[in-house]
Amino acid sequence: MTTNSAAISEGWVESVSPRAVTKGSSILGLQNLTKRFGAITALENVSVDINKGEFITVIGPSGCGKSTLFNIVAGLDSPDDGHIAHHSRAIDARELLGQVAFMPQQDLLLPWRTVLDNAILAIELEGTPRAKARAQALKMLPEFGLKGFEKHYPHQLSGGMRQRVALMRTFLFRRELMLLDEPFGALDSLTRSMMQRWLLEIWQHHERTVLFITHDIDEAIFLADRVLVMSARPGRVKLEQRIDLPRPRRGDIVTSEEFMAIKRRLLAEIEEESMKSFAS
Ligand code: ADP
Ligand code: MG
To answer: Domain of life of the organism in this record (predicted)?
Structure first.
């Protein structure tokens, strides 16, 4: 940060994106979180700092505690050990409930509600009157590629559209931190890469901070400012990799030498962990 501002004031940096300058203040600091379920240690000494405006992806073998970590950050569960700081203030995990917008692994669209009414669910539960909530959601439909579909029901939508409804619900619930648990996991690869580019656009437009779970390594690198590689159970942060690829990111960046080099490095770590979880 200091480097950036110094560089700007001295005028020798030609273009620094505004995001790079505003990023930095800590939203959430997780320190040495440990979570056990009976004899199983799901998380062990997990420390993560989440800074304003960042896009952080979390990758790790299945069962390594990714969803457990999310539940804690969403205030749905408490760690057995460790500390949490919200805007540098020490808090209890439960205080995070309602502070974070959370999209669970299943899209949880209600089959009897229309697109519009599914999108407003979280803000309606929060107390926004239905008419006002609907008006807010209507304005957002075009950006989410859902214009004209407001009266459709979930079963009438493609997989990608369903995920956009769930994402719209999460965006409408305006919180500075969003947790997305494998939102594109069930999509075919073409739809998936379209959704990734689209998500980056709306993330920049809405200036949110995102913690995103995936088990797809290309996705983890493509989206992120930082990738956290988790170890097999007990889940620890095994590696933290900064991704300094330029933004906006184009689809063909995945074939660049820089991207491939990062991918090789991460793959080696991930494969080691997957073998461990396979063997256990
Ligand atoms: P991931 O999302 O990385 O696949 P999870 O966080 O869902 O992993 O699970 C991590 C470990 O904790 C798994 O072994 C899982 O069985 C266990 N676990 C998760 N939630 C519970 C729970 N509520 N009760 C008991 N065990 C749980
Ligand atoms: Mg999970």
So the answer is: Bacteria
